[in-house]
Design a protein that fits this description.
Layout (H helix, E strand, L loop, with lengths): L1 E9 L6 H9 L7 E7 L5 H9 L7 E6 L5 H13 L6 H4 E7 L3 E3 L3 H11 L3 E10 L7 H18 L14 E5 H11 L12 H11 L3 E12 L5 H22 L6 H31 L5 H17 L5 H9 L1 H23 L7
Parallel strand pairs: 1-2, 1-4, 2-3, 6-8
Antiparallel strand pairs: 4-7, 5-8, 6-7
Helix pairs in contact: 1-2, 9-13, 11-12
Organism: Streptomyces syringium
Family: Belongs to the glycosyltransferase 2 family.
Keywords: Glycosyltransferase, Membrane, Transferase, Transmembrane, Transmembrane helix
């Protein structure tokens, strides 16, 4: 039996797949087996993965090719798990733990060692999500610097505020599972990851499935995955609409349950909070337009409080992030874009049946 197996679905990832595999080879606790599932690729992803597998110093690596996969990432993941389950005794006889990671992601060199330690601490934990941080120094213009910088702050802020008692979603960038927990999902519905041509968030749907099967899911700030950021506004909106629409689709299918209510309430309150902030600023600017600048100690105190609070929330990201958050305006602009894709995600969930994502 292997202790830790990694499944890496990769579709047209010739730029990032070697970086992902190198980060696995650099682990202080190296995986026993890496399974790369080349999924509907038309570039050099497969040849790069096979070149890595041929290195004598690389962990044992198997490359599977899935050229005609209608079920996207979920289908690729299930294909890798089914291949692994062919050993005598099935999945739990093949490995104790299964790491799923994206091919555009690199892991902290102690990720696997720390993840195994968390799993050993509580036998009821079925899944451990990575803490995702964005890669820096990827910009080519001031606009890209702003856009990627706000994403770095967003990821860093989210990493410090996740609901650890029952996190919203395992991260597709890096999720560490107990195979016993995954097998309980397989017994329930035949596959670990729900296969449907319109499924956009296989990681979120599987998170809920694990909870419904009685397992705990958690996150750990020391299990870090570094992921790519979207360099253009169009790509960012497309990515987030896919995530948002997939989440809304899943919530609509599940309805209001003990495992979905927190996500529903968080989404509604987040949008309501944004509307309140915009309305409050509009009133303040209207008063200034009519009467000029009036120093109101109450309003000034509120602005100062939220400014300082926003800065303190990202102090672990460095002084530049603190300055951006204290200024408030950059964050407000990004929040406007964020609420745009939230609204369009809800609209698309109710108005379109099939996703255009391949």
């Amino acid at each position: 039996m292997f202790d830790t197996v990694v499944v890496v679905p990769a579709r047209n990832e010739e730029v990032g797949v070697l970086m992902a595999l190198d980060s696995l080879a650099a682990q202080t606790y190296r995986p026993d087996l890496i399974v790369v599932v080349v999924n509907n690729s038309t570039d050099r992803t497969e040849s790069i993965a096979r070149e890595f597998a041929s290195r004598p110093e690389a962990p044992y690596t198997v490359v599977l090719n899935l050229p005609d996969n209608p079920h996207k990432k979920a289908g690729a993941l299930n294909h890798g798990i089914q291949w692994l389950s062919q050993v005598e005794g099935g999945l739990t006889a093949a490995a104790r733990h299964l790491l799923v990671m994206d091919a555009d992601t690199s892991l902290h060199h102690q990720f696997l060692a720390r993840a195994r330690h968390v799993m050993r601490s509580d036998p009821k934990i079925g899944g451990l999500s990575a803490t995702c941080l964005g890669r820096t120094d990827l910009w080519k213009s001031p606009w890209q610097r702003y856009l990627t910088g706000m994403q770095i702050i967003e990821y860093g802020r989210y990493a410090r505020s996740r609901y650890r008692g029952s996190i919203h979603s395992m991260s597709g960038a890096g999720s560490f599972y107990r195979t016993e927990a995954l097998l309980s999902v397989v017994r329930w519905r035949g596959d670990v990851f729900w296969e449907d041509h319109a499924n956009l968030v296989e990681d979120y749907e599987t998170t809920i499935a694990l909870k419904e099967a009685g397992w705990k899911v958690t996150a750990n700030q020391l299990c870090i995955a570094y992921t790519d950021l979207m360099p253009t506004l169009r790509e960012l909106i497309q990515q987030r609409e896919r995530w948002g629409r997939g989440t809304v689709d899943t919530l609509r299918r599940r309805g209001w349950t003990r495992y979905t209510w927190f996500s529903i309430v968080t989404m509604v309150l987040g949008f309501a909070g944004f509307l309140y902030t915009v309305g409050w600023l509009a009133v303040w600017l209207g008063v200034m337009a009519r009467h000029g600048f009036l120093f109101d100690p109450i309003w000034f105190s509120l602005i100062a409080f939220w400014s300082v609070f926003a800065g303190l929330r990202v102090r672990h990201l460095g002084w530049k992030a603190v300055v951006v958050e204290v200024l408030m305006l950059p964050g407000l602009v990004f929040a406007t874009v964020r609420n745009y894709w939230l609204i369009t995600s809800v609209i698309k969930s109710y108005s379109t049946r099939v996703s255009a994502w391949k």
